[in-house]
UniProtKB/TrEMBL annotation:
Ranges where the HTH araC/xylS-type domain occurs: 231-330
SMART domains referenced in this protein's UniProt entry, alphabetically: HTH_ARAC
Keyword field: Activator, DNA-binding, Transcription, Transcription regulation
Highest taxon above the source species: Bacteria
PANTHER family, sorted: HTH-TYPE TRANSCRIPTIONAL ACTIVATOR RHAS-RELATED
Coiled coil: none
Family matches, as InterPro entries: AraC-bd, AraC_XylS_family_regulators, Homeodomain-like_sf, HTH-like, HTH_AraC, HTH_AraC-typ_CS, Tscrpt_reg_AraC-type_HTH
Organism: Mesorhizobium japonicum (strain LMG 29417 / CECT 9101 / MAFF 303099)
Pfam family, one: HTH_18
Keyword Transcription: yes
Protein name: Transcriptional regulator
GO MF term set: DNA-binding transcription factor activity; sequence-specific DNA binding
Length: 351
């Protein structure tokens, strides 16, 4: 069967606005019989057999859109597929893919891709895995004289984004995975391509893929315990961004000593507590500025926990390179994963 393109000239679509669950498929080759997860121990002993099945299945992609009004899922795939790109336009700018946050996990099977991530250049080669968050200041593309073979899984959802942000903070956007993990991710992609017609089934596979990546990168039960131990603190922060959030209160919620809490929090979330709170405040401000344009900037500042509008504008500009008012006009949205790297430092009690 000939491959019929039903997508843009490059990369995975990410629409979330269809009136019903929409499945879009383009195949070259037959369907693969995989329809359920294999035990993790299977992946460890089978080599990259599932990856070979994915390749044998032929170039294909699937996009999934949830109906409006559906209760949010913690992890939801937006697209997945396997492609070989050569002598064609393939160029994705993470600042020009809309305001809805999602991630792209893309594994290089062969050939070469290019990535520019926060002004650092990467050459993606065989067995390199790419992870990026959108929207964000990055670009990945195929050079005119090169070939790139890869498979990808894109997803969104609060938990998927949180897990992937933690991985990015530790490993950066490019890393190497164990063969068993690559096979596991390929299996998740195959099952999404060939089945998972319901939102719940698709969500389960997306979460499985996120956790397979998590287990490979962190590989530690101790770290997993730290991550889960911080969840009540994270929930408290997100529920009270319009109020003062002194670190002393966060320590009390965690039940740990201050030193142990600060260390565990930074390992879990990739940022010290005070900087994480600042990040969350500014992310909320960015959303309000673009989605609630009837609110004055001063009121946005108050709703995000900034009593001083001038301080809010100063911090916002350091991170975005523009004032809140200008940001609202342009509609620009960016990832604030590491505010301190852009020169914004806060003391533990400044939150």
């Amino acid at each position: 069967m000939a491959c019929v393109r039903d997508k843009p000239v490059s990369g995975p679509p990410t629409s979330l606005s269809a009136p019903h669950l929409r499945i879009s498929l383009a195949f070259r080759g037959g369907l693969c019989p995989y329809s359920r997860a294999r035990p993790e121990k299977d992946y460890a002993f089978k080599g990259n057999f599932v990856l070979r099945d994915l390749i044998a299945n032929g170039q294909s992609m699937r996009t999934i859109s949830l109906p409006r009004g559906r209760q949010r899922l913690h992890a939801m795939p937006t697209s997945t597929g396997y492609e070989v790109r050569e002598d064609e336009i393939y160029d994705w700018d993470g600042r020009k893919r809309g305001q809805t946050p999602f991630t792209v996990l893309q594994h290089t099977i062969s050939g070469t891709g290019r990535l520019r991530y926060e002004n650092r250049n990467y050459r993606l080669q065989e067995n390199d895995t790419l992870l990026v968050l959108v929207p964000h200041n990055h670009r990945y593309w195929l050079a005119s004289d090169e070939r790139w073979e890869y498979f990808w899984i894109s997803m969104n959802g609060e938990e998927a984004l949180r897990i992937h942000k933690s991985i990015l903070s530790i490993s950066g956007p490019v890393f190497r995975l164990k063969p068993a993990t690559i096979d596991h991710l390929a299996d998740c992609s195959l099952r999404l391509i060939n089945g998972a017609a319901s939102a719940g089934a698709a969500s389960a596979i997306a979460y499985e893929a996120a956790m397979a990546l998590y287990d490979d990168v962190f590989g530690s039960h101790a770290f997993a315990e730290k991550l889960s131990a911080m969840q009540p603190v994270i929930d408290h922060i997100n529920a009270n961004l319009d109020r003062p959030l002194p670190v002393a209160d966060l320590v009390q919620i965690s039940g740990l000593s201050r030193a142990h809490f600060s260390r565990c929090f930074a390992e879990s979330e990739g940022l010290p507590p005070a900087e994480f709170v600042l990040q969350q405040r500014l992310q909320r401000a960015a959303k309000l500025l673009t989605k609630a344009d009837f609110l004055p900037v001063k009121e946005v500042a108050i709703l995000c926990g900034f009593e001083d509008a001038n301080y809010f504008s100063k911090v916002f500009r350091r991170l975005y390179g523009t004032t809140p008012s200008q940001f609202r006009t342009t509609g620009m949205y960016a990832n604030l994963r590491t505010p301190a790297r852009r020169g914004v430092r806060v003391s533990d009690d400044e939150t």
